[in-house]
Please model this.
Amino acid sequence: MDAIPVASADVSGNEERYAAEAIRSSWISSTGPFIDRFEAEFAELCGTRYALACSNGTTALHLALMGLGLRPGDEVIVPSMTYIATANAVRYCGAEPVFVDVDADTWCISPQAIEKAITARTRGIIGVHLVGHPADMDAINEIAAIHGLWVVEDAAEAHFAKYRGRSVGGLGTMATFSFFGNKIITCGEGGAVTLNDPQLYVRLKMLRGQGMDPRRRYYFPITGYNFRLTNVACGMLCAQLERREEIFQKRRQVFDAYTNNLSGIRGIHFQPVASWAETAPWMYSVQISPEEFGRTRNELIEILKQENIDSRPFFFPLHTLPPFTEVASRQQHSMQVTDRLGDNGLMLPTYNALSMESIDRICSVIRKSATSKLGIRRAA
Ligand SMILES: Cc1ncc(COP(=O)(O)O)c(C=O)c1O
Model:
């Protein structure tokens, strides 16, 4: 049986050509026409004035938080159900993440939980658009406005998802993206910050480029970082943007095939989609109910592995991980939905080259694994 990976990048368009063009031109570092083109196109697609390409999604987050002046002693509210980079970036600034639960009907940060977690030290909120679903940005922005907080969207997993018809990326003070190899739009390793504020843009650009004064070459008025992305990588990103409709269409076909194929199986719960959300088809994700399905999520992952099929558990909730258990135990916020998703969430192989036969094979293994007395719900 052929191995089915959990993700595989589709770089079958002009990616190679543009990367080769950048190499041949010798503009291989962090200046060049593909960087300018990518930043302009990406900002337009996100509905923002600016985009800044960064070396990855983590440096994009770190850059955004430094730009906002996050300091030791500050607190930032983040969902516990997210990738560790969201909270690590808070720590890089010397601040503390305050973990809150996600909502069962979006799997994204709960606005009610945010309200309960605000203290005098809270500076901002990171609304993570988890597995392609936008967070409830109006509710988050309203809370932020009342308490004088900033809002960063972590859109690493949700390129071009829409919230009430508006693209993610321009819905808060700033947004960050990842272009890692398993993301919808990729260049292997890469990231971006999108924003509208011209002063913040200048500050972020300086911080991204070692703190160099934009008007005086090699004069550094502040301590900055090297978080830049190369012209070669941006060439790949330009090619990905040319093909974004095709990439989305193919991924949606994969999503539809899974939903059709799995919809009769008891104990498999699909990702909820809020009425105001248009999700980005990142990784096809389900929640396993062990009582109904008859096996745990981890058992199912093992069974799939034996059939040469890779899959991915959801993230360990951040409040349970060693770097954060101490702060989280002081915070003591309820994590019911997060804990359930951490135990039962499963991501299935999702990529453009995944054939319908492979999806049938994956779903048939899942169907055969269901052993509960209730078993498989009969088709009506
Ligand atoms: C929600 C979230 N935030 C941030 C990141 C960090 O991005 P990168 O891996 O490009 O540093 C990722 C994932 O990779 C992510 O899933």
Remarks:
- Residues 375-380 have pLDDT under 50 and may be disordered.
- The domain at 244-369 is CATH 3.90.1150.10 (Aspartate Aminotransferase, domain 1).
